[in-house]
């Protein structure tokens, strides 16, 4: 079992911190209005841009760009070199303590920006519990899973432009709506605005042509928490035959810290047992998922939070590596900064469902919140908070929070 690496940053040794020295996640700090690459250590943020300028680090200027893309492009040897250097500089007893202290900023005062330039965004539908729940609601229990589902990770090409960093407010979308009872579609605000609890995998090395699952796994730089905001009523009317479009294009929130694949390495687990054999190009050569506890809190405006679901990333039927292998199988190139949404992560029980659509069973069984109010879908003023951590005996590899508050819809064309 992996053990805590102690740091001279005392808060990094607390068992409940998301950011022990074992983690070293990568984010971007706004420093005097300029974006600086940074890492988190305990309750502090370490400015790596400033460290490179002060010649503590030399990565050819890759840490001075205000986004992690250039560093990711340097490849594995440099990824490991930075991790080794930072581990040495921040370890308990390191001589660097005095010189490095001026480069620390308290996390509570840090303004964090999007950690990388999202070059492409693809979202999948790869949790069997989620697909079964949604399919049962819309097509009945006997036809819950589409015939292709057990053979490939189903996905759609999303919008990189929709990805925002945690803390960014999300405007309830307007759109074209039509229920089976309506004669014609009408224009209105989404009444069934929802969340999807997902993990995002970040591609750190490009490909041109098909890659194996093992090659795909090695291309992944790290992971973030991801909330795929979804307008269920817009989706219901638009999704046939080409899948979701405007229902998923409003916003996709991600957590501000990229937790590296290196930090998650001790927490690898196998995907669940296959129900039917996969074609060879999708077979996993080893454990490609991670044991990461996940939860979502819902906080109505000015009221106490209720944790509405708890699940685990290991519930996925397909890993991110399998998704990349499938994504590239047609020859589709993958780029540095490509973001892949896992798909909603639901577990086997009701309390493990990763969306309000499932938790409230399409609105038929509203979720009870602390204080006695209920929710079928997200209401204006609600703040949704995703949290996640891989948990070891004496430390945890956490992601920080991924939050977003929902603002009321705004009609257009804008008036006045
Ligand atoms: Ca999704």
Write up this protein.
With 416 residues, the chain is α+β, with helices and mostly antiparallel strands. The protein folds into two domains: 10-113, SH3 type barrels (Roll); 121-407, Alpha-Beta Complex (Fumarylacetoacetate hydrolase, domain 2), CATH 3.90.850.10. The chain is 18% helix and 27% strand. It contains ten helices and 27 strands. It has helices at residues 48-53, 69-74, 76-90, 97-100, 128-139, 213-219, 232-238, 261-264, 320-327, 356-359, and strands spanning 26-31, 34-41, 44-47, 104-106, 112-113, 120-124, 155-157, 163-165, 170-171, 174-177, 186-189, 193-194, 197-203, 220-228, 230-231, 252-254, 259-260, 268-269, 289-290, 293-299, 306-312, 338-341, 367-368, 374-375, 383-391, 396-398, 402-407. Strands 6, 7, 8, 13, 14, 16, 17 and 22 form an eight-stranded mixed β-sheet that branches. Strands 9, 20, 21, 25, 26 and 27 form a six-stranded mixed β-sheet that branches. A hairpin with a 5-residue loop joins strand 23 and strand 24. The longest helix is centred in the first third of the chain and has 15 residues, at 76-90. It is globular. The N and C termini lie far apart (62 Å). The relative contact order is 0.18. Bound molecules: calcium ion (CA). Calcium ion binds next to loops. Calcium ion (CA) binds next to loops.
């Amino acid at each position: 079992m992996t053990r805590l690496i102690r740091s001279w940053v005392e808060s990094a040794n607390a068992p409940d911190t998301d950011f022990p020295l074992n983690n070293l996640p990568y984010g971007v700090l706004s420093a005097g209005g300029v974006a600086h690459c940074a890492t988190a250590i305990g309750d502090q943020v370490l400015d790596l841009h400033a460290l490179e300028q002060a010649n503590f680090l030399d990565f050819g200027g890759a840490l001075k760009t205000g986004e992690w893309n250039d560093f990711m492009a340097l490849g594995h040897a440099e990824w490991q070199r930075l991790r080794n250097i930072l581990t040495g500089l921040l370890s308990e007893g390191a001589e660097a303590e005095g010189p490095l202290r001026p480069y620390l900023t308290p996390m509570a005062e840090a303004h964090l920006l999007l950690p990388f330039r999202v070059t492409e965004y693809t979202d999948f539908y790869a949790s069997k519990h989620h697909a079964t729940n949604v399919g049962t609601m819309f097509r009945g229990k006997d036809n819950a899973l589409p015939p292709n589902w057990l053979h490939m990770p189903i996905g759609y090409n999303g919008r990189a432009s929709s990805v925002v960093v945690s803390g960014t407010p999300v405007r309830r979308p307007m759109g074209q709506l039509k229920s089976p009872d309506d004669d014609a579609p009408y224009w209105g605000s989404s009444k069934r605005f929802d969340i999807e609890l997902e993990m995002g995998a970040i591609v750190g090395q490009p490909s041109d042509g098909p890659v194996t699952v093992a090659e795909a796994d090695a291309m992944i730089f790290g992971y973030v928490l991801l909330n795929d905001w979804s307008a269920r009523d817009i989706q219901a009317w638009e999704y046939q035959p080409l899948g979701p479009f405007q229902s998923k294009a409003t916003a996709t929130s991600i957590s501000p810290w990229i937790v590296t694949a290196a930090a998650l390495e001790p927490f690898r687990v196998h995907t669940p047992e296959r129900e039917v054999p996969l074609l060879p190009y999708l077979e996993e050569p080893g454990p490609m998922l991670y044991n990461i506890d996940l939860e979502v809190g819902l906080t109505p405006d000015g009221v106490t939070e209720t944790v509405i679901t708890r699940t685990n990333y290991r519930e996925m039927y397909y890993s991110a590596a399998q998704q990349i292998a499938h994504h590239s199988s047609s020859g589709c190139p993958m780029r540095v900064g490509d973001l892949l949404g896992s798909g909603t992560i639901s577990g086997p029980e009701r309390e493990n469902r990763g969306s309000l659509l499932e938790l409230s069973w399409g609105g038929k069984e509203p979720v009870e919140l602390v204080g006695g109010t209920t929710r079928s879908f997200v209401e204006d003023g609600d703040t949704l908070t995703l949290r996640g951590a891989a948990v070891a005996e004496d430390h945890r590899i956490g992601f920080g929070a991924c939050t977003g508050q929902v603002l009321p819809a705004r009609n257009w064309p804008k008036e006045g």
